[in-house]
Design brief:
The protein is of the alpha/beta class. The protein contains 21 helices and 13 strands. It folds into three domains: 43 residues, no CATH class; 299 residues, Alpha-Beta Barrel (TIM Barrel); 61 residues, no CATH class. The strands form four sheets. It has a four-stranded parallel beta sheet with strand order 1-5-8-9. The protein has a four-stranded parallel beta sheet with strand order 10-11-12-13. It has a three-stranded antiparallel beta sheet with strand order 3-2-4. Strand 11, helix 16 and strand 12 form a beta-alpha-beta unit. Bound molecules: zinc ion.
């Protein structure tokens, strides 16, 4: 955590006073204070990290850059702590700190979703190139909502849909309107929004777009390139499986998504051979045990066929509206049986505690189950015994600070619960959840907010970055390779940034 660069001058030990050099002696009070500080630091999540001399030099320089940024915003009377991410986004982008964090290797992005990976401007401009792409421009009804995108064959276009390209050409303002319909922003921290209702509408608007096989291929290629550009070498996607389709063949089997993604990876590997991908089979918290049972069977089948691609299982959607994790006890007790039947293990990576309420007790389940990592874990701090278990079980919490602010769980990011987890030795990594829905790409914005709002030093940043590989679902061999690459990238970053900030 952030060291205090303060120099204590003791008057008693001052050479000016005595006229000779004398070693400063600390009072008993000061000694106790210093050991208390050390004991607290020893409990933090990054206590095992020792920085090299060059890393320490860089740490001091980054601290100065941050200090300068904070004093500049203070002079300009910018209300940094009471502004939403969307309000300060231009300020972030113009900061030296952001430029610096963009060049920092991030390791892996462990928590993101299949519907939220890449830039909506790109989605619109790419979708309009397809003649068969349409947009619904009527009032919401039971089936479709305003701004919903879809592909249709000529002559089979449902009422209310118009050609996307024609609509964008005839109504130039519609592009900006559509961008807003596909992104969820918190314009300020005060106004009321029904976050989850609005959030889910964003996914619905692109839900018919992504399974169209030609578009699917372009979408993931772009998504992976965005991540690589932002120095992310590994990604794990909470993946909602849908049958891909096109108009020549109709629907393809589920596994076509995986084989297509493998082909996309091959293409990516021509320029970036280090890039790796894992999929976490995801279903929904609002389904019943019978449906989840079927989904688990499908997940196991896919894992058996593609053990290097499918890593685990998760349930998504608003925790306040869906079932508790314990509701699915029946399904979880079948996991051992399924392990044996398919000869593969399918660990859980559950979203749990994406809530500010103590009445949501989903974090209790993750300590009981074979659950490797926890999505969000925002209310874990209210369950001290479980927090201790999670620490002892060495399970990582995937923290997505910007997502947490936009969905209304945290306003002033200085008060993010993950700071309590980090101080208490719970391992975390930084994720972006659904960056495209929040109006950005990559992982640098999330690192920027943690660096600025949580007083993180280079030691903490390094631990978060390396955690994202160490706690990834890669196997030992893959991890070893990934860590070798990350170490090289990290050393290179430290050296180059040290030179640049001279
Ligand atoms: Zn999520």
């Amino acid at each position: 955590m952030m060291k205090k660069y303060l120099i204590y001058i003791s008057l008693l030990g001052s050479p000016l006073f005595w006229g000779q050099t004398k070693v400063t002696e600390k009072s008993v009070y000061q000694q106790k204070w210093a050991s208390s500080e050390k004991e607290n630091e020893a409990m933090a999540f990054d206590a095992d990290i020792k920085l090299s001399d060059t890393e320490m030099a860089l740490d001091k320089k980054i601290f100065q850059v941050r200090k300068q940024f904070l004093s500049d915003t203070e002079k300009k009377k910018i209300s940094l702590y009471n502004s939403s991410f969307n309000e300060i986004k231009p300020l972030i982008e113009s900061s030296k700190l952001f430029e610096l964090l963009q060049t920092m290797p991030k390791g892996g992005l462990l928590h993101t979703h299949s519907g939220g990976i890449t830039d909506v401007k790109w989605i619109i401009s790419t979708a309009r190139k397809y003649q068969e792409c349409y947009v619904y421009d009527q009032k919401d009804n039971d089936q479709f909502i305003f701004g919903q995108l879809a592909f249709f064959e000529k002559g089979k276009v449902p009422n209310g849909f118009v050609s996307l390209d024609k609509k964008l050409t005839s109504t130039p303002d519609f592009e900006k309107e559509l961008q807003d319909l596909l992104t969820l922003k918190r314009d300020n921290l005060c106004s009321y929004t029904d976050y989850w209702i609005e959030f889910e509408k964003r996914f619905k608007r692109i839900s018919l777009l992504l399974p169209y096989r030609p578009f699917f291929k372009e979408y993931y290629l772009k998504g992976f390139k965005d991540l690589i550009k932002d120095k992310v070498q590994h990604v794990e996607i909470r993946y909602i499986f849908d049958e891909l389709y096109d108009f020549q063949h109709g629907k393809y089997p589920l596994k076509t998504s995986i084989t297509d993604l493998k082909d996309i990876l091959k293409e990516i590997h021509q320029s970036d051979p280090q890039f790796t991908l894992k999929l976490i089979y995801s279903s929904f918290k609002f389904l019943d045990n019978e449906s989840i049972g079927k989904q688990l069977e499908t997940a196991f089948e896919l894992k058996k066929e593609f053990p290097d691609m499918i890593s685990g299982f998760d349930l998504v959607a608003d925790e306040a509206a869906g079932h508790n994790i314990s509701f699915f006890e029946k399904s979880w007790t079948k996991l051992d049986e399924l392990n044996k039947k398919y000869g593969v293990e399918l660990p859980l990576y559950l979203h749990a505690g994406e809530s500010s309420s103590i009445l949501n007790k989903n974090v209790l389940d993750v300590a009981l189950l074979n659950n490797k990592r926890i999505g969000h874990g925002l209310n874990l701090i209210y369950f001290p015994k479980t927090m201790e278990q999670i620490r002892k079980q060495n399970k990582l919490v995937e923290v997505s600070p910007i997502s947490n602010q936009i969905l209304g769980y945290v306003s002033d990011l200085r008060n993010h619960p993950a700071r309590v987890l980090l101080s208490n030795g719970i391992q975390c990594s930084i994720s972006s959840d659904d960056p495209s829905v929040y109006g950005y790409t990559g992982l640098s914005y999330d690192f920027w907010v943690t660096q600025v709002y949580w007083d993180l030093d280079l030691k903490a940043l390094k631990k978060l970055v390396f955690n994202s590989i160490n706690y990834s679902s890669m196997n030992d061999g893959e991890k070893k390779k990934a860590l070798t690459y990350l170490n090289q990238q990290w050393d290179d970053f430290v050296q180059k940034t040290n030179q640049k900030l001279n």
